[in-house]
Amino acid sequence: MEDPKSRDQINSALQDAQMSQQIKNQAQFETTKLIGNLLTTLGYLIGVIAPFLLMLIKGSISPLILILVPVLGTIIPTIWFNSSGNIFLKVISIVLVLITNLVMSAGLESGPFFYWIIPISLFIGFWITQRKIPKMEKEIN
């Protein structure tokens, strides 16, 4: 016969392991959600503050056009992720990326290499919140 104490210990260990896995999955989910929100917030924060700082530094109103970058940075992933395989909408979002580059070049009057952090962080933030998080929610539930 089996000892009831050892069976209780085994069941307890199995419950602890299962609980540990659930806590790990929930922590990974929350961390991913936090990263997505931080990237999106960073993109918006830089995208709204930087044009005004550049206007003060340059003494010109031309950097004000850069306020369009976070707007385009929001439109592009929205179209991209909601196009569901429609090539026409994918082409529109690629054209908007080129327009974003033109806007950044016009506002900065030089190479917009470092300013690309705004649309890239917005795109990755939207990817996490629109694609990764729902998939993780399905796995947890």
Brief synopsis:
The chain has 141 residues and is an all-alpha fold. Helices cover 82% and strands 0% of the residues.
Radius of gyration: 23 Å
Structural class: mainly alpha
End-to-end distance, in Å? 38 Å
Helix and strand pattern:
HHHH
What ranges have pLDDT less than 50 throughout 5 or more consecutive residues? Answer: none
Note the overall shape.
elongated
Q: Report the biggest beta sheet as strand number plus sense, adding barrel if it closes.
A: none
- The number of helical runs is 4
Mean pLDDT, all residues: 88
* Portion in helices: over 70%
Assembly state of the chains shown: single chain
Number of strands: 0
Percent strand: under 5%
Give structural notes.
The structure is a single chain. With about 140 residues, this protein is an all-alpha fold. The chain has four helices and no strands. The protein has helices at about 5-60, 70-80, 85-110, 115-140. The longest helix has about 55 residues, at about 5-60. The chain is elongated, with a radius of gyration of 23 Å. The two termini are about 40 Å apart. The relative contact order is 0.16. The mean pLDDT is about 90.
Provide keyphrases for this structure:
single chain; 141 residues; mainly alpha; 4 helices; 0% strand
Element layout with pairings:
Blueprint: H1 4-58, H2 68-82, H3 87-108, H4 117-140
